[in-house]
Amino acid sequence: MSRPKILIVGAGLTGCTVAWRLAQEDIEVVLLEREDVIGGLVRSDHMNGVLYEPHGSHIFHTEDEEVWELANRMTPFNDYRHRVDINVEGRIFNWPILLSDIEHQSRGDEILAELKEREGVDSESRAAAANFEEWCLELMGPILYERYIRPYTEKQWGRPASELSASWAPRRVSVRWDNDPYLFPDPYQGWPAGPNGYTDLLDNLIDDPRITVRTGADATLANIDEHARREQADLILLTCPLDAFAGECFGHLDWRGIDVRSVYIPHMEYAQGAMVVNYPGKEYPFIRIHETKHASGQQCEGTVLGFEFTGAPSRYYPIELPENRALNDRYRDHIREQIGSDKVYFAGRLANYVYIDMDDCMRQALDESAELIAALRR
User: Fold this and answer.
1) What's the pLDDT at 32?
2) Residue-wise pLDDT tens digits, 118-153
3) How is residue 275 annotated by DSSP?
4) What per-residue confidence (pLDDT) applies to 320?
5) Which residue from 14, 91, 345, 378 has the least number of CB within 10 angstroms?
């Protein structure tokens, strides 16, 4: 009796994690990846021997013990905790905002007064904010908002902060009264300790004879039946952008793309004080500079800086507006109608059009794997 088989479109972190979980149940998996390599935006690389991230910094942080244990089972992680700096008025300060930094800035007394006015505002009041701008103003007042938040946010997203959802603000914006300089509070944090960074995590997830990877495979709604017949697949999982998969038949979903231009710097151990330095000012054409060595801890000559520019025609960040989510739902319904609602499943940040972190992608992958396993057994 032949094993059941699942066809997965997209070999990023979500697709690779689903493939691993299914293989543990003796289910065959075929991963179709459009690019020449797996891993999507998570994959690490080397430049002149220096390990770096060509698509910007990725920090693994989570409260999910099962996900953390799985990641470490695939590759060991170091104990790196993420620090971010920000260039404000030509000076480098910590991000998130520290109370201790405010006294070294202009209008410090006014800022402290605005913060104290809002100290008693509870999280439920901020949760009722109509948009990202309103949420931030409720937290910190106008001076810090105009100095730190609005210029960076609008540079990053290419639209007014008042048009963005408040839903992801609590995970991204804070004022630290305790002066804790680290970005994430999660109990499990780190960066891959192996020689190839996140590439080791990805490669080990799919290192199983029951998993077949086909790179350079352009799977679309128009040809997915052909792929499924050829592979004799029982079910299909999509982890790719649904608008692209369906040929944009209902129009283009809004995505915010970035372009990271990496440069090797010889004869320097480090070129900046943190892994990421934000540059919100319009006088800088880039928005962030990345330096992976702070996280990898690699001992070698030279370093690599990644200059991040926004507005590239790539699908990095979904712009989570109600009309965009409705359009993604329309694509999902259309794909189900064409393939069969009992034959196709969806997982990951691209297919679900949601801005989530790596641990959330792996959690979604494990949960969706359970759905696929149950469907095969019905």
Assistant:
1) 98
2) 876 666 667 789 999 999 999 999 999 999 999 999
3) S
4) 84
5) 378
Q: Got the DSSP string for 144-201?
A: HIIIIIHHHHHHHHSS-GGGS-STTHHHH--EETT---BS---SEEE-B-STTTHHHH
Separation CA 27–CA 373 (nearest Å) = 9
Query: HSE of 161 in the Cβ direction (CA atoms, 13 Å)?
Result: 21
Of the CA atoms within 13 Å of residue 64, those in its CB half-sphere come to: 19
Q: Is the peptide bond before 96 cis (omega within 30 degrees of 0)?
A: yes
pLDDT mean over 373-378: 94
Q: How far is CA 217 from CA 69, 316, 375, in A?
A: 31, 20, 26
Q: What is the pLDDT of residue 1?
A: 56
% of the chain residues with pLDDT over 90:
91
8 Å CB contact between 34 and 314: no
The C-alpha atoms of residue 42 and residue 202 are separated, in whole angstroms, by 9
CA pair distance 81, 99, nearest whole angstrom: 20
Best CA proximity match to 7, nearest among 286, 212, 251, 281: 212
Q: 13-24 vs 198-205: helix axis angle to the nearest 10?
A: 40
Per residue in 177-225, pLDDT (tens digit) is 999 999 999 999 999 999 999 999 999 999 999 999 999 999 999 999 9
Residue 363 amino acid letter: R
Strand partners, 304: 264
Contacting residues for 187 by C-beta, under 8 A, at least 6 apart: 63
What b-and-e string marks burial along 265-290, b requiring 16 or more CB atoms within 10 Å of the CB?
Answer: eeeeeeebebbbbbbbeeeeebbbbb
Distance (Å, whole) CA 155 – CA 158? 5
